[in-house]
Write a structure and sequence with these properties.
With 84 residues, this protein is an all-alpha fold. The chain folds into two domains: 53 residues; 30 residues. The chain has two helices and no strands.
Length: 84
């Protein structure tokens, strides 16, 4: 295939090769940023789904100590004459 002006064709291709790396660099940068954002969102979602149906040992011990504290405060409140 012969082009009418071979010099113009070469210059157009050269210009494309010069500008292409900056475009590819921008494109790769955006792809990495998008992947990081999606990873963060997926992590938040998976943690929330886990917390719906499961409890960590720290959560269970906190709930037990919370019940004990509430019972103790209720006993103190009952024993004080100002609150009866």
């Amino acid at each position: 295939m012969e082009f009418p002006n071979n010099d113009i064709y070469i210059m157009e291709n050269l210009l494309w090769f010069v500008t292409c790396p900056s475009y590819l660099q921008w494109l790769v940068k955006r792809a990495i940023e998008t992947r990081e954002e999606m990873g963060d969102l997926n992590r938040v979602f998976s943690v929330s789904q886990f917390n719906k149906y499961n409890q960590l040992p720290e959560d269970e011990s906190f709930a037990a100590s919370k019940r004990t504290s509430i019972n103790q405060l209720t006993a103190i409140k009952v024993s004080l004459p100002a609150y009866n």
